[in-house]
Each structure stands twice: as C-alpha cells, then as structure tokens.
Amino acid sequence: MHELLPGKAETLVNPFRRALAAGCVLLSATLYVACTDQPSPVASSLYPAQNKLIFRALNSVRPADSLSLTYRIFLQHFSGGTLLSNAFIGLFKTYEAREAIKMGPFFQDTSFVDSTEHAGTIKSGFLQVLLSPYRFGDTNSSMPFHCTVNEILAKYDIGATWDSLGATSNYKTTPVGSYNGSIGIEDSILNIPVDTAFIFRLLRYGNTDSLNTYFNGIAIMPQQGTIGIASFRLYASLHLLILSSDTLLDTTVCGGVQMLSIVKSAEPDPPNEMVFQSGLEQRLHLYVQTPTIPKLSVINSASFQMTLDTVNSVFGKNRLIDSLGGTSRDTIFLCLATSDDSLYPFGPPMGIRIPNTHRYNFTYMAPFVQEWMHGTPNFGMVPIQGFSSTHGGGDEFSTLDKFVFYSPNDPDTTRSAKFQILYSIQPP
Questions:
Q1: CA pair distance 73, 407, nearest whole angstrom
Q2: Do 94 and 235 reside in the same domain of the chain?
C-alpha cells in the first residue's frame, strides 16, 4: 500500500521491508540503489507496523526528499594569542609564518648590566626557543631554516593579524640576530645568535630610552632558503654567555611575556570547494536547511559525510602523533553553532575517516536534528580539528593542516557532501 502526502515524500512500508529500506537509504545519498524485496526477519522488531518510515537526503534525485546545504568560508580570530598552543615560523610554497615576541628583563636595576657590560667577559648572546615536533611541508628529515631577528616598529596587541602586522615596513631593516642552518628531526631547542649590544640596550631600556624609540618587541622573520614551517612552543628567552673563572655561564636575562604567531597564505581557495585550515583560524560554516519534520517523529538516525580533495589539501608531518603516517588527520570534530560566531562548547560529534577512503563520516547527528525539530535555532555547524585529541596533538591552533572538501555542488555525486536523516512517524 502506498500513500503520498502533500509536500513530502512518505513511504508506507510493510513490516518486513522497513529495515531493508533503511539500509538502502544509508548506502547512497542519491537514493538511486536497487533494493530487493526479500523480507528482513528483524523489521517488525525495529519499527511498529503502523509507523511510516521516511528518509531525507542531500543531493537526492527526488526533490521532495532533498535537504539544502549552504556553506561559507571565513577568516576570523576566535581566540587570543595566549591560547595558541604553538607558534609557526617558516616558508612553504605560498605560506609564510613569523613570530612576534614582547620581552621582559629578569633584572629590575642596571647593576647586572654595569658589572658585566664593561668587564670584557661577555662571549655571545642568543634567543632561545623551544621546538614542537609538528612540521608543515616536506620535512621528513632535517629542515633548512634561515631567519633574522628584527625589532618591531609598530604597536600591536595580541589580536594582531597578518593584515595589521605583516608589512615589512613594521620592522627594522637591520636585524639584531640571524640563524642559518637547519632544524633536525630530533631537535627540541633552537638558539638564534643575537647581537649582545642589543641585549644590553634592552636591559637598560626602562630607566633610559636607550632604544631611541618605543620598544614593541622582536620578531623571528623567516628568510629565503627555508623549506617548510616549524612550530615553536610558546616560550622564548634571551641569554648571555658570560665567562667567569674559566667557566662559561649561560645566563637568562630576558623572557618572553607575550608571543604572537601570524600566518599568511597567498594561495587561493579552490572554487566551489569547502575549505577550513587550522592555525590560520579559517573555519568552514555549514548550514543545513532541513525539511519540515513532524514534532512527534522519532529520529532513528542522521549522518553527515564529506569527501576530502587530496590534491588541494595540505598537511603537516608529525612524526610522533600522525596516525596516518603523514597523509592527513583522521579525526574531525563537528560543533553546533549557537550564533554566527560562537559554538556549543560541549559534546561535539566526532567524524572518522572511513578506512581506505578519503571520506569523513559523522554518524552521531541525530541529536542535532532533534534539537532543531524542537525549536533550537539552527545556526549550522562548524568542523574543526583538535580538542586535544590524540589525532593532531592539540587544538586547531596546533597545526596548519588545510582540509579541502568537495562541496554539495560537485557534479560527481559520489564525492559531494551528504546529509541523511531517517525518521519514523508515531501513530496518533
């Protein structure tokens, strides 16, 4: 017996065919799958005989069954720099990343400076940063790394971006330090030689204006010859090597009090594809327009799938944590948006890459649909990487991984984004 209600596709199935119909729905978003009429022995136990089983799917060949999915890609700073777990430094293809550091002296008076500056015992000075194992680019072995340390001329705050601080005119032309070498795969510390005269000027700054201008900090600026982007822990310190009684003492004289990583990518996003990238705080906002579902309905299942475009996606290589051997992260979280710029903070569903494919599957979507059915405003969903999972080693600010997914507009429906809802209507 078949019944078609106005405005929607509803299929009344006999109790022995319901489970089979559900299985066919979940196999393909196009719903263009041939199903046999063989009865299922568990159908009657899954759904009462009086219920109607209805499915909705994105990209369905039946217009009444279709959901609409729109998306936007936007750049926005969602967190202050103090929450960043890593800073990025380096050059890779069209990407550039540098770190800005505001320093604070460990000594409150100039007695240390007076006793060491003129004693002829200063051997050298350096800026020390701690390295994270994450690398972006082709960095299977040692990474060629060349940089300068330059004074920052522009005033900035922790929310500064590449647009506000990226111009080279914001930095002094003559560097106060430089490094030309490489970063080994096992290295955990990088010491960048710095002019000792600059360090003493910095130590004297505060009592006298020895820097001749307001000091806004220093920046580690990657130079040509660098291949790839390394990640630094949010720690930096200035050191002096002092010779005392034939002993070379490593003395920490300044520490980083504020650090900011700014990243630029001149690489255009592929047209008609969905992109989000960690580190750049580039997020993807998905909005699902669901059909009208009766409030007395039971959402039996809902799922969302996205297929990765492996040509345009770019991933770093983390020799310690990457569970896919340096190909891509296999876990993504999907957060429910509570407004145009805020996310629900608890319990995001986790999407897993289907083994031996480039498809990410989010199966625990029923609570989202149930919330929307009962009046919760639908502001859409935001996929992000991280939440301190073992996949990726931290939150979305720990990497520069770039995820590019095929959009719902992709003509190849086998790889376009898909959202499926399966629900049943309870009898009155």
A1: 12
A2: yes
Whether residues 261 and 272 share a domain: the answer is no
CA count, 13 A, side-chain hemisphere, 134: 27
Are both 133 and 274 inside the same structural domain?
Answer: no
Report the alpha-carbon distance of residue 396 to residue 428 in Å, rounded: 47
CA separation for the pair 305, 288 (Å, rounded): 13
Distance separating alpha carbons of residues 120 and 267, to the nearest angstrom: 50
Name the residue type at position 386. G
Domain end (from 234, 265, 296): 265
**Which stretch, 65-74, 135-144, 221-230, has highest mean pLDDT?**
221-230
Q: Report in angstroms the alpha-carbon separations of 76 from 164, 258, 286, 416.
A: 13, 21, 16, 26
Q: What's the pLDDT at 163?
A: 86
What average pLDDT does the segment 113-130 reach? 78
Of 245, 265, 285, which residue constitutes the final position of a domain?
265
Picking from 252, 365, 391, 371, the residue whose alpha carbon sits closest to that of residue 306 is: 365
Indicate if the pLDDT at residue 199 is higher than 70.
yes
Best CA proximity match to 260, nearest among 47, 52, 72, 98: 98
- Is there a domain that residue 3 lies in? no
Q: What is the mean pLDDT of residues 140-151?
A: 91
When the pLDDT of each residue in the chain is averaged and rounded to a whole number, the result is: 75
pLDDT at residue 412 tops 70: yes
Name the burial class of residue 22, with classes exposed (0-12), middle (13-18) and buried (19+) by CB atoms within 10 angstroms of its CB: buried
